[in-house]
Amino acid sequence: MGSGLPLGMVGCGSRGKSVFVGYAFVATRDSGDIAVVNLAAFSLEPKRIKPRGRPVHLIDVPGEDVLLSVTETGAVEEVKVSEATMGRALETPLDPGAVWLSHDAATIWGLTRDGKALVAVSRATMRVSRKWALPGKGRGIAVSPGTADVAVSLDGEARVGILRGPGEKELAWTELEAEAGALRYLRNGSMVIAVQEGARQLTLVDTASGKVMVTLPLPIRPENLCFNADGGQLFITGEGVDGVVVVYPYQSQVATTLLSGKAPGPMAVSVAPQFLFVTSPSTGTVSVLDVRTQKLAAVVAVGADAEPRAVVVTPDQSMALVLNRKSGDIAIIRLANIVSKRQKTAPLFTMIPVGSAPVAAVVRSFA
Q1: Phi, psi (deg, nearest 5) at residue 7
Q2: Are 289 and 276 in contact (CB under 8 A)?
Q3: Distance (Å, rounded) from C-alpha 330 to C-alpha 312?
Q4: Structural domains of the chain, ranges and CATH numbers in brackets
Q5: 319-343 pLDDT, tens per residue?
Q6: pLDDT per residue as tens digits for the range 271-298
Q7: The pTM is what?
């Protein structure tokens, strides 16, 4: 694989156009490397990508032949996709759990490990370009998917700071009712959502004015968030209910709670068909909810000792890849095999061992 991925070997044969021609790059924390899975042949490439540190997060860079690997020490390293090799690297002071890419892919944003500063890293130079001191310990960060805005929450404080682009000298702060943790922007960047786990609520803040627009009480402790493709629905799981809370953020409305598996965890959503994949780490299952009908379509068993912790849908919407952290493999679900029936079960297509503790994945098409 030193000479690149064997692209000439995929997409051939009798399966024709129905085959997804691409690869899954899977970060394995305990193995300390990145596995490469050929999704046309459903096989693991023999040579693995070796970052300089243990990878805990992968960030796709759309339109470029590059992925970003974030290590447990906060180092950011480039992965050359077509060659499956490592590129430039920067030993940063960043918290590996608080690293984001800007909407134009020009800036890597993050919080320092001590939480004292917000940091901007230029991708052109792979150097820290600027820092903003924070008035408290940074806890959460979010980058707008459509604008230059960045938002930050502080540990133990009921306020959110908004930086309106890297040219601004300081953040504008908005006072909230309760401490904020995770943050998310709406797709158009018009509002930032502050997740308040302790208070079991969400607060929506207008990014232009910094005003609180609405606070929405929730029946659960919001721990895992997932938007649908157009950003019009926000799915939330967490302690309190074995189900998924559906929020319509543009209407500022908590719509409903959909029953799912026991102690639901992280999620992913497909576009066509519109399925929500909800992991249940304690039971080794993935519940598939039909977004259109808001009903359970199927339950897929991915392994009694699997502990599924993440799901990634392929770009062609044909497969869902489930990362099983405990069993060290990815379980592949074919969306075409999910059909409405009385038994509410769907078969697992295959499982591929990838290494100990897979924690993140990026799928790239080479069609």
Answers
A1: -65, -30
A2: yes
A3: 10
A4: 92-222 (2.130.10.10)
A5: 999 999 999 999 999 999 997 666 6
A6: 989 999 999 999 999 999 999 999 999 9
A7: 0.93
